[in-house]
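Regression test case RT-17, inverse folding.

Input:
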């Protein structure tokens, strides 16, 4: 008998949408159902990829070229996929990833305004046919998100961007969701937490029953 591959679920959204709290809800839910899973994040998830994360997020004097940023994101992703994500899925574990390639379309494509076709090309090269089974997208007006995020410590290189950048990020996420509605759950993160989590629970239930 061949082992059933695990499910690959990603959690996405702009700044201040409540990703951490809701990630905890997702892993608690999986624990309660006895699902074997691996929780990880991007950029990061392996020692090398975490080093690349540090390089990507740290504030620096030198202006970072958007294409250099894009290639670093995909370098980290290639390592993460080969060393962590693919082996876990092959073992039959679910993988819960805090951000993945939709964040690249949103931040580098939307935010930095890089060519989507270039991102798609790198996606194909690095991932082959691998895509998340379900993207849980927490959607929120960035004006609200930035207010929420402002209270959580010093801003990194992305968090230091202006409102217009985050408006493009949000629009790019929503565009992705509209282009493949069967893979995305767009969740209104402005609603009370219980309602957000009710929706997350419903989504997980569907994946579990499949
Ligand atoms: P976070 O994990 O705390 O949300 O921070 C990760 C930051 O990295 C966030 O600002 C979004 C950014 N990012 C990209 O710009 N491109 C990507 O592909 C990923 C995964 C993250």
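Golden output:
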């Amino acid at each position: 008998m061949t082992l059933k591959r695990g499910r690959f679920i990603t959690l996405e959204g702009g700044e201040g949408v409540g990703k951490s709290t809701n990630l905890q809800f997702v892993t608690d839910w999986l624990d309660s159902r006895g699902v074997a899973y691996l929780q990880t994040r991007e950029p990061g998830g392996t020692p090398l990829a975490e080093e690349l994360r540090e390089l990507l997020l740290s504030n620096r004097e030198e202006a970072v070229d958007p294409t250099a940023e894009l290639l670093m994101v995909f370098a980290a992703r290639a390592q993460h996929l080969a060393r962590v994500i693919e082996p876990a899925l092959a073992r039959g574990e679910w993988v819960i990833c805090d951000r993945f390639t939709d964040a690249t379309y949103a931040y580098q494509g939307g935010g930095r305004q890089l060519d989507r076709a270039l991102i798609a090309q790198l996606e194909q090269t690095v991932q082959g046919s691998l895509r998340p089974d379900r993207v849980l997208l927490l959607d929120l007006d960035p004006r609200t998100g930035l207010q929420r995020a402002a209270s959580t410590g010093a801003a990194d290189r992305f968090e230091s961007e202006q409102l217009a950048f985050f408006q493009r990020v949000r629009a790019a996420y929503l565009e992705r969701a509209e282009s493949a509605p069967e893979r995305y759950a767009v969740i209104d993160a402005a609603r009370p937490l219980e309602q957000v989590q009710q929706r997350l629970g419903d989504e997980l239930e569907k994946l579990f029953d499949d």
